[in-house]
Specification:
heterodimer; A: 551 residues; alpha+beta; Heat Shock Protein 90; Ribosomal Protein S5, domain 2; 4 domains; eight-stranded mixed sheet; 14 helices; 20% strand; B: alpha/beta; Arc Repressor Mutant, subunit A; Dna Topoisomerase Vi A Subunit, Chain: A, domain 2; 2 domains; six-stranded mixed sheet; four-stranded antiparallel sheet; 13 helices; 40% helix
Chain lengths: 551, 392
């Protein structure tokens, strides 16, 4: 009887040890990329495609017009289409952009953009391929080139694109642009964290773009009209700030630099380092100005790294940031939220770990109830019914007795999942909203029919995971968010308090209306005055009483 | 048991006539004039385009003074003015409408209980009272407003709901039939096991008595015991049961016995801060809240028979006591600090301090420790021998 062998030798193990391709890794760990369930898969796919489209349009200086269609084929089988009017993609790059993980223009760049790692859209393709066996169909046309119609799959073992069909179209309905089509296994739901929610929030944070959206099972295309016609300023690219570079990266930069000498390397490859600062840094090490960067040993690099941390270097430039802007946030909120009051605040740029960032906050607040009180110039208060239903679909504001909705954005991209784990949420909870007229239990979100928009613009947004769903809680970021919340909160507080004042004044005047006639009746009963006399008296008293009241 | 010695003694009969008839007509006129005047003032000011106001005395303990000579709490003169504004408009309207009701009742010689006045307001639409407490307060305000002219709530024809105390003993009350005006005589010695009940208004009553003094008693239990054993016959006195803080009618009733029949009045209440600082104090000098009418509604000549803190020691009641509760201690300390009556009498200060020091209270009925009739056979005779020593 042969005994079952339980243990392996090192040599036997070696046979089983081989390189794991990135795509295989992600195929097994799809949750890291936001494909953990069917509903989220649909959202992530749309999101990645739209993010790419918006980035491309803005980079090319084109006002984006994006069409999204979702068709349900079977119960859990969908076909999605995202089309933009961007610059199009050069044919040779199409396969790499869509069919290769970790391929992109943005990872190494220190420029504010939606995409970061070059994973998203190709991961969507991989997911579609795994769940349906079909690849993606990409149609793209540049201004001067022809329209290409390419069917693309991915060799997930080798992380390589495979073109299954490649046609040149004689005619296409767009002068330029890109269309991405994919079949995938998915579920469609409405409500919070749905595709609909994402699109609406995208429209809020990007009032310069038009989105046409055909939801599954819907006959009508929903149009989110553009509210501003100016493309956001294109953010500048910046070199890394010395504080934001870790040792490993420093070693890589030393190896890859074009500079001859260390002093040149420090000045050329970093921002905010001039000759004097470079000398100061080098002085603190055993290296000298003319050391060849590529010859710096690991221990020396370590010393250099520590010298950098000890040297006082001014904050990175902030012209690399492109905030949404107060007007645009207001426009965006007004366009998509049925609210009675909007407050916005923008913080000056700040820095975390050498990365510049900027926080903007917008609050849309709706007074509970269906009535609004209006105060005329003469101080007369009238009650009016609120106008409602200017926007369709999901209302971004919750009910008056529910926690406020938090609309989180990073570089104009809505973050829908993992609200609880997000630094923004933490900041909202740590802000004392009672001071600003909202109710709040300790350590919880404030309650009220309101939406709080928080946007972080940064060359590098610190997400807690690759799925880009939550912002890491860097103290510098939390602090800026809180300051912005407080500023907007103060404006809200002033409004709410004033509203309460008007309401109580209105209440009081109603009170006068209600009881003053009885003063007249009492006097009439006792003194036997005529009805006319009584009415004149009441009118006179009303005037006297109201004239002493001011709002 | 029934055979109790009754001292045959020739007693001079004292009488007091009804206090009313002449003054009632006068006061009726004063009341109607006051109402009319108040309303006219409001009208006049309003017509000038100004905001009208009504002025009345503040009704609380902080606004009373006490002088041993006068013998009761008097208003110190702090006034509150209610000017027509948002916060007062409802009360303002209600005050006028209640004044109008009073005007009607005075003219028609009708009356309304405070409860009925509250219900009358239910026909006023928005201006109605939501609770009787609200209408009672407005009534007190109106009374306060007119009190300076000698007008009371009773003259305005508002009568309290609660009946007065119970009376037994050597007293005949002469009332009259409201319809025929014929006199009706009630002999308080012929009430069997029941008692004569003090009506809500007492100024029209006449009295005849052969009694030598009056004992006013806090609890129904003690009153029943003394009545059952005909103590009033034994001691030739009148017994009045207050049932807690005496009502205005009861106070007025005892006051007339004290003043017009010249009978000494002895209070017999529990030995605790409530019995002393609320029941006895109100009986003797009136209350802060009703300071505007105290002149008539208290018994300045009443004295305090017991139960005193010293009685607890002298009659061996130490083990029949209960500890003072925090609320008792607060009440007692409050009296020492804020009540003008106790502040004016060193003997009272000492007695209250003694009680606080002992930390206990004793009920009237604690004497039952020594036997059910100990109070009749021992306590009262012993105390009544030395009425001069009673607390003021």
């Amino acid at each position: 009887m042969a005994t079952r062998k339980k243990h392996s030798t090192a040599e036997e193990m070696a046979l089983a040890q081989k390189e794991i391709s990135v795509s295989e890794f992600f195929a097994k760990n799809r949750h890291l990329l936001g494909f953990d369930n069917k509903q989220k898969a649909l959202l992530t796919t749309i999101k990645e495609a739209v993010d790419n489209s918006l980035d491309a349009c803005e980079e090319a200086g084109i006002l984006p017009e994006i069409s999204i269609e979702i068709h349900q084929l079977e119960e859990d089988r969908f076909k999605i289409m995202v089309e933009d009017n961007g610059p199009g993609i050069v044919k040779a790059q199409i396969q790499n952009i869509f069919g290769k993980l970790l391929y992109g223009s943005k990872f190494h760049s220190r420029r504010q953009s939606r995409g970061q790692q070059g994973i998203g859209i190709s991961a969507a393709l991989l997911y579609g391929q795994m769940t349906t066996g079909k690849g993606a169909v990409i149609t793209s046309k540049t201004k001067r080139g022809k329209a290409h119609h390419i069917k693309l799959q991915m060799d997930s073992r080798k992380n390589k694109p495979v073109i299954t069909s490649d046609d040149e179209l004689k005619e296409w309905h767009l002068k330029q642009g890109t269309r991405f089509e994919l079949e995938l296994e998915a579920t469609y739901k409405r409500g919070l964290r749905s595709v609909d929610d994402y699109i609406k929030q995208t429209a809020v944070a990007n009032p310069h773009c038009t989105i046409n959206y055909l939801a599954p099972g819907s006959e009508e295309i929903r149009v989110y009209e553009r509210a501003v016609k100016k493309i956001p300023d294109r953010p500048d690219e910046i070199k890394p700030h010395p504080y934001g570079v870790e040792l490993g990266e420093l070693i890589r930069m030393l190896r890859e630099t074009n500079s001859r000498w260390l002093i040149g390397f420090l000045q050329e490859d970093f921002c905010r380092v001039g000759k004097k600062k470079a000398q100061e840094i080098i002085k603190a090490t055993k290296l000298n100005e003319r050391t060849y960067p590529s010859r710096v040993a690991r221990e020396e690099a370590d010393a250099l790294y520590r010298a950098i941390q000890k040297t006082k270097i001014s904050a990175p430039p902030t012209n690399c940031l492109s905030p949404i802007g107060e007007n645009r946030i207001t426009e965006g909120l007004m366009k998509e939220c049925d609210a009675d009051f909007y407050a916005v605040s923008t913080r000056p740029p700040s820095v975390y770990r050498g990365n510049p960032f900027q926080i903007e906050v917008g609050i849309a607040w709706s007074k509970p109830g269906d009535d609004l009180l209006e105060v005329s110039n003469k101080g007369k208060i009238t009650k009016k019914r609120k106008k409602r239903g200017t926007t369709d679909t999901e209302d971004l504001l919750g009910n008056a007795d529910e926690p406020v909705r938090i609309l989180r954005f990073a570089n104009r991209v809505p973050l829908l999942s993992q609200q609880a784990g997000c630094g923004f949420t933490k900041s909202v909870m740590q802000t004392a909203w009672k001071n600003y007229g909202l109710t709040q239990s300790k350590g919880a979100l404030p309650v009220g029919s309101a939406a709080i928009l928080i946007h972080m613009a940064s060359v590098w947004v610190p997400f807690t995971s690759e799925a880009k769903e939550a912002i890491a809680s860097y103290p510098e970021i939390l602090k800026e968010v809180k300051l912005a919340l407080q500023e907007a909160g103060r404006k809200l507080g002033v409004h709410i308090r004033k509203g309460k004042k008007v309401a109580s004044e209105f209440q009081k005047r109603t009170y006068i209306e209600q009881y003053l006639p009885h003063v007249g009746i009492g006097l009439q009963e006792i003194l036997g005055i005529s009805n006319e006399e009584r009415e004149n008296l009441v009118e006179k008293l009303r005037t006297s009483m109201e004239s002493t009241r001011k709002i | 048991m029934a055979a109790r010695k009754t001292k045959k003694k020739t007693v001079k009969k004292k009488t007091a006539a009804a206090k009313v008839d002449k003054t009632t007509e006068e006061l009726k006129g004063v009341a109607l004039d006051s109402i009319h005047e108040a309303a006219s003032d409001v009208l006049k000011v309003s017509k000038k385009g100004k905001l009208p106001s009504m002025t009345m005395p503040q009704r609380n303990l902080a606004n009373v003074t006490y002088d041993k000579k006068t013998g009761y709490f008097e208003l110190a003169g702090n006034l509150k003015t209610r000017t027509l504004d948002v916060n007062s408009v409802k009360t303002f309207a209600q005050t006028l409408r209640l004044m109008s009701l009073a005007q009607d009742m005075v003219s028609d010689e009708d009356f309304a209980t405070k409860r009925e006045a509250y219900y009358v307001s239910k026909n006023w639409g928005d201006a109605k009272f939501n609770e009787q407490r609200e209408s009672d307060t407005v009534l007190d305000d109106i009374e306060g407003m007119f009190s300076l002219k000698g007008i009371t709530r009773e003259i305005l024809r508002f009568v309290p709901e609660e009946h007065g105390g119970s009376v037994v003993g050597a007293l005949t009350v002469i009332d009259r039939d409201p319809e025929t005006g014929d006199p009706i005589r009630s002999d308080c010695a012929s009430m069997g096991s029941g008692a004569y009940t003090v009506p809500s208004s007492v100024d029209h009553l006449g009295f005849e008595t052969s009694a030598e003094f009056v004992i006013v008693i806090e609890t129904g239990g003690m009153f029943q015991r003394l009545n059952h054993h005909r103590y009033w016959r034994t001691a030739n006195c009148i017994l009045v049961e207050m049932g807690g803080v005496p009502t205005r009618a009861t106070r007025r009733f005892v006051r007339r016995l004290s003043e017009e029949l010249r009978l000494p009045v002895y209070a017999f209440v529990d030995c605790d801060p409530y019995g002393i600082c609320n029941i006895y104090r109100t009986l003797k000098v009136g209350s802060g809240a009703a300071a505007h009418v105290n002149a008539k509604f208290c018994v300045p000549k009443a004295t305090f028979m017991g139960v005193t803190p010293q009685d607890i020691l002298e009659f061996g009641l130490e083990d029949a006591t209960h500890p003072l509760q925090p609320v008792d201690v607060k009440r007692a300390k409050d009296a020492l600090k804020n009540d003008p009556f106790f502040k004016a009498h060193p003997k009272w200060k000492a007695a209250i301090k003694q009680m606080l020091k002992m930390g206990v209270r004793a009920e009237q009925q604690a004497f039952a420790k020594w036997g059910l009739n100990f109070v009749i056979e021992e306590y009262l005779p012993k105390k009544l021998k030395e009425t001069k020593k009673f607390l003021p």
